[in-house]
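Why should sequence recovery work at all? Because a backbone constrains its sequence more than one might expect. Tight turns favour small or flexible residues, buried strands favour hydrophobic ones, and helices have their own preferences. The token representation captures these environments compactly. In the example below, the structure is given first.
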């Protein structure tokens, strides 16, 4: 049996995109670590497809599942040697965590932001929440500032369990900050902190399946969102953000992962963003590290994992890229109500 046979089996049993190269990435990750969460992190293969691939490799005699570990068998090691697969490497810059930007003028507010974030509402499964580390949020603000999308700008944050609105306002750089979230806990928290710290943040409760209020359309220079990873959900968040921009030159920032989005989905997203009048200007892979949420054992992919271990709260395995887009023409987005489920699709793993 070879990598191609494994890839065919995964596609046949899941109907998910999966390539020979994906199988190779998984084996390279297993050469580096026997831990399921590190294998997910290092391989960059969507979790649902990865789980099936591990089972297929187990059936082929390449892997054994021992307790909480995933180990290569002698047959598996022989196949890897014959295929010339090398261990996966993680060569992150220790200074910036691989983000390629300094905190710079954001550094003075870092301690205050970390203190505020300690009291934030916990992530809940109802809204597919999962927030990034405080460092990830701070570096986001630095990146926006460096790209000229923060200072003196009007910023809209669509969904804010990461507290981007508060971090941005703490710098004093933006002209205006507005956050929208469906979760009344988060809206109340942001309002309370803004009031106590004297920050100019407008916090509004809003379900993004509903059209944006008329007063928010074509009103902002910059938007930020970290959307749900289903194709429909991602495009829904992105569409709301694009419709809120004033026009050409407006910028949008989004998080996009490989944990729940194959490269086929990435292509579909990029194509749709281009159709909506935007161009991708920046992509920083693994920019965001996520704090593990308290509902790991009830998320969709848990039952599919061939070995199970609850990771520690600060043991990152879920990461996402930071993507920047800029409008080059008037946006082409309908501000219409979205019916049905926007949170799940076949690759969804954490809902």
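From this structural description, the recovered sequence reads:
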């Amino acid at each position: 049996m070879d990598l191609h046979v494994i890839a065919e089996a995964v596609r046949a049993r899941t109907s998910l995109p999966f390539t020979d190269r994906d199988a190779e990435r998984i084996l390279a990750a297993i050469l580096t670590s026997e831990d399921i969460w590190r294998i997910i992190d290092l391989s960059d293969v969507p979790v649902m497809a990865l789980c099936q691939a591990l089972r297929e490799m187990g059936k082929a005699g390449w892997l054994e599942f021992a307790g909480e570990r995933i180990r290569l068998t002698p047959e598996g090691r022989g196949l890897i040697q014959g295929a010339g697969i090398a261990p996966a490497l993680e060569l992150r810059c220790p200074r910036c965590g691989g983000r390629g930007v300094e905190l710079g003028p954001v550094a003075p507010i870092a301690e205050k932001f970390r203190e505020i974030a300690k009291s934030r509402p916990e992530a809940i499964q109802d809204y597919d929440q999962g927030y990034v580390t405080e460092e990830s949020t701070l570096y986001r603000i630095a990146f926006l500032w460096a790209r000229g999308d923060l200072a003196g700008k009007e910023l809209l944050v669509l969904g804010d369990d990461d507290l981007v609105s508060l971090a941005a306002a703490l710098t004093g750089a933006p002209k205006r900050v507005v956050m929208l979230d469906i979760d009344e806990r988060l809206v109340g928290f942001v309002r309370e902190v803004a009031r106590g710290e004297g920050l100019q943040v407008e916090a509004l409760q809003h379900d993004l399946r509903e059209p944006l209020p008329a007063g928010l359309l074509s009103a902002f220079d910059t938007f930020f969102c970290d959307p749900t990873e289903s194709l429909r959900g991602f495009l829904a968040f992105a569409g709301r953000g694009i419709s809120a921009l004033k026009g050409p030159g407006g910028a949008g920032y989004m998080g996009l992962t490989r944990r729940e989005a194959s490269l086929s989905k990435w292509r579909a997203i990029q194509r749709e963003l281009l159709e909506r009048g935007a161009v991708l200007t920046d992509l920083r892979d693994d920019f965001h590290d996520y704090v593990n949420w308290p509902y790991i054992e009830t998320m969709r992919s848990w039952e599919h994992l061939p070995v199970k271990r609850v990771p520690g709260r600060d043991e990152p395995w879920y990461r996402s890229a930071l993507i920047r887009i800029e409008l080059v023409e008037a946006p082409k987005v309908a501000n219409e109500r979205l019916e049905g489920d926007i949170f799940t699709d076949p690759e969804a793993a954490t809902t």
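A few observations help interpret the result. The domain at 3-83 is CATH 1.10.10.10 (Arc Repressor Mutant, subunit A).
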